């Protein structure tokens, strides 16, 4: 999927998608969810669960 198509489907600007992809911009959980939905990917797949201890609420 192109950045343009992803931006359109996720209702985000293409330049925003490009800046997130290049690491120049942080992304909010709301926008991660929009992108996950646009890609038909579960939100949890955007996170590496091995880096977090979900039982205590803190990272390793």
Automatic annotation (TrEMBL):
PROSITE patterns: HTH_CROC1. Residues 1-46 form the HTH cro/C1-type domain. Gene3D superfamilies: lambda repressor-like DNA-binding domains. It holds the Pfam family HTH_3. Signal peptide: none annotated. GO terms for molecular function: DNA binding. The lineage of its organism: unclassified sequences, metagenomes, organismal metagenomes. This is HTH cro/C1-type domain-containing protein. CDD domains: HTH_XRE. InterPro entries: Cro/C1-type_HTH, Lambda_DNA-bd_dom_sf.
């Amino acid at each position: 999927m192109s950045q343009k198509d992803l931006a359109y489907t996720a209702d985000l600007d293409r330049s925003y998608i490009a800046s997130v992809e290049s690491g120049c911009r942080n992304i909010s959980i709301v926008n991660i969810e929009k992108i996950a939905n646009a890609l038909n990917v579960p939100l949890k797949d955007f996170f590496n669960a091995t880096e977090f201890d979900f039982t205590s609420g803190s990272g390793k």
